[in-house]
Amino acid sequence: MAVRRRRALHAITLLGTAHLDFTIVRDAAPALAHGALVTFEITAAGMAGSLAVGVTAAGLRMANSRAVRAAATAFAEFFRNTPPLVHIFFAYFALPAIGINVPGFVAATVALVLYQGAIASEILRAGLEAVPAGQIEAADALGLGGFERFRSVVAPQALRISLPALGNNLISLFKNTSLVSAIGVLDVTGVAQDVIAQRLSSAELYLTIGAFYLLCVFAFAGVLRALEARLARYGT
Predict the structure, then answer these.
(1) Is the pLDDT of residue 202 over 90?
(2) CB under 8 Å to 174, separation ≥6 — which residues?
(3) Is a pLDDT exceeding 90 seen at residue 13?
(4) What pLDDT, on the 0 to 100 scale, is given for residue 61?
(5) Domain boundaries, the chain
(6) Angle between helices 203-234 and 155-176 (to 10 degrees)
C-alpha cells in the first residue's frame, strides 16, 4: 500500500511540474468537436436500442413458456457477463469471416446495444417483479384487462423502481462509447488518440477528454435526478 501511495504521489508531482501545452487541444478542437458529436450519436442510438432490447428481453423473461424464458435468460447472462470490447471486436472482425460486413460505427453501436440491453433487461425484470402484488390485485378488482393493467398500473411503478439503475446503465453506456476507438471509430477518444500519435503529447488530450466525459456524466446524472424527483412527486 505504501509503495502504491508513493507511486501515486510521484505521478501527481510529475504532472504538476510538467509543462502542459494546451495549444495542442486548441488546434485539434474542430476534430475533437466532431468526435464528440460521434460519441453523442452512438450514445443516443445506444440508449434507444438498449432500452428496446431491455424491454423486450425483460418481457420474454417473464413469459409463460419455459423455453422462451430460458432463451431470454441465456441472452441476458451471456451478454452482461462478457466484456463489451469482446462484442465490439467480434462484430467488427469476426462477422466478416461469415460474410457479414458492417461499418465500424454500426458494429460498435450494435455491440453496445446488446451489452447494455442485456443489463437493462435484468433491471427491468427486477422492477416488474418488485411491483406489489396488491397493486395488481386492485387493478384486477377494477376490471382492468391485461394490457390496461400493465400500461396503467404495473409499467409506471416498475419504471419508477427501475429508474435509478437504468440511469446508471445509460451513464455506463456513455462511458463505454470510448471503447469504439479500438476498431478505428473516430469518437472523441479516437480523435484524441490520433492527435496524440501525430503530436507525441498525451497529457493535454487525455486531461481534456477526461474533463469532457466527467462534465457530460454530471449533466446526465443531474437530468436523471430531476426525473427521479418528478416521478417520486407526481407518480409518473
Answers:
(1) no
(2) 39, 43, 213, 216, 217, 220
(3) no
(4) 85
(5) 23-234
(6) 180
Q: 72-104: per-residue pLDDT in tens?
A: 999 999 999 999 999 999 999 998 888 888 899
H helical segments located in the chain:
2-17, 23-27, 29-61, 66-80, 84-89, 104-130, 133-141, 146-149, 155-176, 188-199, 203-234
Q: Is the dihedral of CA 47, 53, 56, 60 positive or negative?
A: negative
- Statement: residue 128 has pLDDT above 90: no
Spatial contact of 115 and 142, defined as CB atoms under 8 Å apart = no
**Would you say residue 187 has pLDDT above 70?**
yes
Q: Which SS3 state, helix, strand or coil, does residue 236 take?
A: coil
User: What's the CATH code, domain 23-234?
Assistant: 1.10.3720.10
The amino acid present at 185, given as its one-letter code, is: V
Between CA 6 and CA 2 the distance in angstroms is 6
One-letter amino acid identity for 215? L
CA separation, residue 190 to residues 31, 105, 195, 209 (Å): 10, 12, 9, 10
* Region label for 235, one of left (φ > 0), alpha (ψ between -120 and 50) or beta (otherwise): left
> What grid cell was written down for 161?
423502481
Q: What is the pLDDT of residue 217?
A: 95
**Identity of the amino acid at 125:** R
